[in-house]
Amino acid sequence: xxxxRGWYAALLGGLVPVLVGGFLASALADRLAFAGWxxxxxxxxxxxxxxxxxxxxxxxxxxxAPLALLALAVVAFGALAARYGEDLALGFAAMRPxxxx
Length: 101
Prior knowledge:
By secondary structure, the chain is an all-alpha fold.
């Protein structure tokens, strides 16, 4: 895999789940906090990933730095989900098909 392909694969592999999850949660809970979380986490991930690819760090550190940031982003998402849990539950309930269990 070329360097450019590896960069774009790592970038998309981190950005797509964060952005989709944040925007979906924002739509379900009707709260902009989730969309803001997604944008902040995506921007931070892209910055850390760029720094990791450009730095002469060992491979383990270059892989661990963006993954550690994603782990912190998941913790922050959990805090938001705990704060707006009732709104998320109502959003999920509204998307359930009628007549479903």
